[in-house]
């Protein structure tokens, strides 16, 4: 039996959780500084880092309390050390290092993207308000990570034995949603606000392009994002020199809804096309989705229509950034003899890849 405390601070969520045996969620406490970023239309790194400093200690204390644990019950600490915002990661890593040294616990360094997929291994919890999958994923497992910072397709043969099949060459899918929201004058985060606007639009009204990539499983979202900008300019009778921040006030609600619906369809098809292709080639036993965009009803609808297997989604609160995904992966690192990190020297890696 192993109980791991997980710490996540890579972007704007300060989160800590305790997970038992890589499948039982004992606690998860998440504070977000999102409200402070809304006015800027995106996460401001300096504000996020300062918020983490204020929140990290109470968040960890609450996570232990909610799990009814003392430090004696905790076997190891896991922390996200990349990828993410440098200042934000630093707060989590320095806190975890200090705790690992003072509480004499092994420390595990977690890749954020890998962590997102491990949220799907949680199947039991005494906590109210969580709907978890009934059984754990099986290997080979195809993982699609769709978040504000990442768009990746990864094949796991077993724990810690994986291959990156493809990834985005430019924007992440969530980032593209956030940028399109800005063009349309919709609030941040863009995924939910574009999705809501799209409900009133016709997804076939514009045929935005899907990028042809050299890698079979790679993605690109910059072309569709630029196509949205050009379409919005054309719709109001202006040329490509018209400033993007003035478009929203000139577009009608119907034009916004049609652009939102068409963009959402094409951006979602971009990742679903490659997921279906990978499913056919590798015939995985399980398909799992991680990252904030996993909440998108359009993504879930397209995957349900086009994949021959059903997907057991984890709770929405575990799709976006959280400490539970970090603690879960930490449990497997601790029990499957993966190397622990040195608490005296671990440093964040903002550009960490898979
Ligand atoms: O995983 P996440 O919380 O943070 C990162 O690691 O980036 O993902 C945040 C992203 C944002 O771009 C947001 O627009 C998107 O997830 N998102 C959604 C939804 N909720 C959040 N996208 C589509 N539909 C949603 N309901
Ligand atoms: Zn994330």
Describe this structure in words.
42% of the residues lie in helices and 17% in strands. It contains twelve helices and nine strands. Helix 9 (253-282) crosses helix 10 (297-306). The structure holds 5'-O-[(R)-(carboxyoxy)(hydroxy)phosphoryl]adenosine and zinc ion. Residues 112, 116, 147, 291, 321 line the site of zinc ion (ZN). 5'-O-[(R)-(carboxyoxy)(hydroxy)phosphoryl]adenosine binds next to helix 5 and helix 6.
Which key features would you list for this structure?
5-stranded mixed sheet; globular; Nucleotidyltransferase, domain 5; binds 5'-O-[(R)-(carboxyoxy)(hydroxy)phosphoryl]adenosine; alpha/beta
Rounded to the nearest angstrom, the radius of gyration is 20 Å
Binned strand content? 15-25%
Largest sheet features: 5 strands, mixed
Which topology of the largest domain does CATH recognise? Nucleotidyltransferase, domain 5
Low-pLDDT residue spans: none
Query: Whole-Å distance between the termini?
Result: 28 Å
In the CATH classification, which architecture of the largest domain applies?
A: 2-Layer Sandwich
Label the overall shape: globular
H/E element sequence: EEEHHEHEHEEEHHHHHEHHH
CATH C-level category of the largest domain: Alpha Beta
The strand count comes to: 9
Count every helix, treating DSSP H or I runs of 4 or more residues as helices.
Answer: 12
CATH superfamily of the largest domain: ATPase, nucleotide binding domain
Total count of domains: 2
pLDDT averaged over residues = 95
Strand order of the largest sheet: 3-2-1-4-5
């Amino acid at each position: 039996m192993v109980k791991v405390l997980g710490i996540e601070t890579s972007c704007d969520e300060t989160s800590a959780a305790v997970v038992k045996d890589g499948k039982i969620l004992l606690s998860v406490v998440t504070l977000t500084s999102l409200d402070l970023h809304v006015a800027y239309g995106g996460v401001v790194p300096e504000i996020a880092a300062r918020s983490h400093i204020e929140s990290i200690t109470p968040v960890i204390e609450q996570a232990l309390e909610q799990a009814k644990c003392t430090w004696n019950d905790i076997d190891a600490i896991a922390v996200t050390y990349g990828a993410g915002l440098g200042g934000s990661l630093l707060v989590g890593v320095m806190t975890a290092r200090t705790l690992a040294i003072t509480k004499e616990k092994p420390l595990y360094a977690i890749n954020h993207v890998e962590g997102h997929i491990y949220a799907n291994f949680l199947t039991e919890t005494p906590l109210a308000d969580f709907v978890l999958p009934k059984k754990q994923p099986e290997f080979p497992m195809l993982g699609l990570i769709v978040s504000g910072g990442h768009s990746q397709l990864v094949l796991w043969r077993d724990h810690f034995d994986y291959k990156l099949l493809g990834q985005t060459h430019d924007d992440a899918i969530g980032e593209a949603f956030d940028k399109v929201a800005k063009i349309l004058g919709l609030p941040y985060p863009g995924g939910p606000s574009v999705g809501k606007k799209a409900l009133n639009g016709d997804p076939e009204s514009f045929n935005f392009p899907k990028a042809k990539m050299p890698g079979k499983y790679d993605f690109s979202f910059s072309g569709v994002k630029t196509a949205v900008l050009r379409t919005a300019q054309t719709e109001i009778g202006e040329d490509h020199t018209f400033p993007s921040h003035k478009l929203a006030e000139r577009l009608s609600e119907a034009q916004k809804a049609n652009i939102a619906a068409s963009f959402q369809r094409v951006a979602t098809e971009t990742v679903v096309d490659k997921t279906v292709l990978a499913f056919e080639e590798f015939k995985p036993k399980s398909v799992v989705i991680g990252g904030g965009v996993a909440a998108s009803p359009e993504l879930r609808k397209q995957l349900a229509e086009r994949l021959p297997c059903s997907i057991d989604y984890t709770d929405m609160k575990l799709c976006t950034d959280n400490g539970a995904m970090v603690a879960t992966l930490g449990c497997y690192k601790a029990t499957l003899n993966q190397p622990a990190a040195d608490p005296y020297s671990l440093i964040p890696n903002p550009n960490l890849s898979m």
